[in-house]
Amino acid sequence: MASLHTLAITPVLFGLKNTAGFLQKALNHAKEHSIDPATFLSSRIHPTMLDLTFQINTLAEVAKVIPNRINSSIEPLDLPRVEKTIPEFITRIKKIIDYLEAVKPEDVNGREQAEVKFLTGPPGNQKSNEFSGLGFVQCFAHPYFWFHVTTAYNILRKEGVDVGKADFLGTTQTKVEW
User: Fold this and answer.
1) CA quadruple 164, 165, 168, 172: dihedral positive or negative?
2) Residue 120 domain-assigned (yes or no)
3) Of 37, 65, 88, 105, which sits 20 to 30 A from 77 (CA to CA)?
4) Rounded distance between C-alpha atoms, residue 22 and residue 59, angstroms
């Protein structure tokens, strides 16, 4: 059976690297077509859905809190949300990748039954969440992360960026300018 570290961290690293790749493709597309890349950041699929900026911020936030939620003795990554451009979001993703790659397996493994409690939602309307370490990864962190990765990808497709299944699955290797 795979370790909790492998289950919790490896797929998220994969998703972050692929997200950086399709954000790089968005920059390349904007340059080739004389489009201001900032227009992508305010784009959304539907008027009731949140924009690309929200999607990137959320997938990044979920990714960066996974280790500390599983084991509160792991130092959380202090990374305020200040990004305003696609290159800045790519840099943010790179910092999260570096952080996750530095998480030691022994700091996560064996925490499958650890108690994970946290609040979600806006102040004044927060919901309490309780999971085991494994339950948090399987039933909250990964679904939440992948929903926002998928939505970010779909927004870029809607905007005409030439991203496809291979970009999402990581079978193309878009050179990312970190």
Assistant:
1) negative
2) yes
3) 37
4) 14
Residue 174 domain-assigned (yes or no): no
Dihedral sign for Cα 106, 76, 17, 153, please.
positive
Can you give the pLDDT of all 178 residues of the chain as single tens digits? 789 999 999 999 999 999 999 999 999 999 999 999 999 999 999 999 999 999 999 999 999 999 999 999 999 999 999 999 999 999 999 999 999 999 999 999 999 999 999 999 999 999 999 999 999 999 999 999 999 999 999 999 999 999 999 889 886 666 676 6
Domain with residue 27: its CATH number is 1.20.120.450
The amino acid at 39? T
| Measured distance CA(6)–CA(37) in Å, rounded | 35
Output DSSP code: residue 113: T
Tokens of 177: 């300018």
How would you class 153 by CB atoms within 10 Å of its CB: exposed for 0-12, middle for 13-18, buried for 19 or more?
buried
Domain that holds residue 55: 4-169
Model pLDDT, residue 178: 60
Q: What's the rounded Cα separation, in Å, for the pair 120 and 131?
A: 13
In a domain, 141, yes or no: yes
Domain count for the chain = 1
